[in-house]
Prior knowledge:
The structure holds 2 protein chains of 2 kinds. By secondary structure, chain A is of the alpha+beta class. Chain A has 2 helices and 4 strands, in the order E-H-E-E-H-E. In chain A, the strands form 2 sheets. A two-stranded antiparallel ribbon of chain A has the order 1-4. Chain B contains 12 helices and 19 strands. Chain B has helices spanning about 15-25, 50-55, 100-115, 160-165, 235-245, 295-310, 320-330, 330-350, 350-360, 370-380, 385-390, 395, and strands spanning about 5-10, 30-35, 50, 65-70, 70-75, 80-85, 95, 115-120, 120-130, 130-140, 145-155, 175-185, 195-200, 210-215, 220-225, 250-260, 270, 275, 365. In chain B, strands 1, 2, 8, 9, 10, 11, 17 and 18 form an 8-stranded mixed sheet that branches. An 8-stranded mixed sheet of chain B has the order 16-12-15-14-13-5-6-19, sandwiched between helices. A 3-stranded antiparallel sheet of chain B has the order 3-7-4. The mean pLDDT of chain B is about 95. Chains A and B meet through helix 1, strand 2 and helix 2 of A and helix 4, strand 12 and strand 16 of B.
Amino acid sequence: MLKVHRDICGYxxxxxxxxxxxxxELIDAYLCVEKNCxxxxxxxxxxxxxxxxxxxxx
Amino acid sequence: xxxxYDVLVIGGGPAGAIAAKTAxxxxxxxxxxxxxxxxxxxxxxxxxxxKEALHEFIDPDPCWISAEMTGASIVAPDGFLMKLESHxxxxxxxxxxxxxxxxxxxxxxxxxxxxxxxVKTRAxxxxxxxxxxxxxxxxxCGHVMNVTADVVxxxxxxxxxFSRWCGIDTTVPVREIMSSVxxxxxxxxxxxxxxxxxxxxxxxxxxxxxxxPKGERSAxxxxxxxxxxxxxxxxxxxYLDRFVKKxxxxxKPIEYIAGGVSVCRPLDCTVADGLIITGDAARVVDPLTxxxxxxxxxxxxLAAEVATECIGKEDVSKNAxxxxxxxxxxxxxxxxxxxxxxxxxxxxxxxxxxxxxxxHSVSKIxxxxxxTLSLIKEIISINPKMMLxxxxxxxxxx
Lengths: 58, 398
């Protein structure tokens, strides 16, 4: 699953623009991850700050 | 806010503000919604714009001009600096804006012209009828209401979610998102009249690093790298911090901003039934420079003009709105985007030694027109070999 490190996130929306599923939505300063996220990791790769991480589900 | 308008504008950046203002000036009712609590912040922009481009829309006002530029410099991967100046020495060629104030001024003007404006107000879904966009579900401080409109103008920036909800794929390819970060830095030694662009694989892979003066001793210092080149340990922030440590070790960052800039081709089609897409949301950013302020204002104005005409004729179908799409593509802006896309694709493939060679070919260029096109023409005239390498593209540069 996709983990948002909220202390690092700059709520810039870069990740939103590359998500192939449209699963990310920026509501003011809060990044929402919707259920259709496939954990593909594209957003984590492009994040300018390193705020996103795909972690194993537990 | 009412529950019905002629035009509903999603997003309060330059594209949305000009769209709303133009619509009400043409006699329509319009409402602009901005999801952030403040117009103009966070900035997410390097704030540069050419002189003529700005003057086409608004006279410069000292309230929101941070600095006036008389030239630019390009720094090669090996550190060699090429200076670009107007053929009239000392002539003003562009501005660095204060977008926090600039964006507010544009929205003010829209409001004064008669547009309704709502901040901290988010369009969360389109209202669709038989495949046609009829308005949007609007969320505001816990309240949800339906706002219908004859035409919705999507000006929701790089995220471009509204059009996606309407069924249009706005996804930016990974290699064509510029993953970006910027500091506003204070107390640094700079040339306060010139922008500086640093190129090279070590500094900004498939992108560039910029120093855009904001005052005598302050500047926007930022970097954009291709999403393809970004990853753990080599993100935009890593590149910027390395540069700042080396170049401005005693500078103080007073603002820290991240962002994404699309450098892909524009959307295949920027209209749908009842919908017009503008600015960054339509991916009409200049793919070579990453500049989007002028293109946003241009498409915002055109969108409102076309909406006015189509609403007057009671036909807001995709077919009727298509004149918006064909007009901007045939415009100077549309042609520049197409040409600069090819130039960008050529430049990002050049290895550093080749870039060094091109930039070393001349230490100072005086440009009659201060545009990327005249710069490219000058560089080609000095490096005629490039003409062959550019292939079919060469014809469009002429």
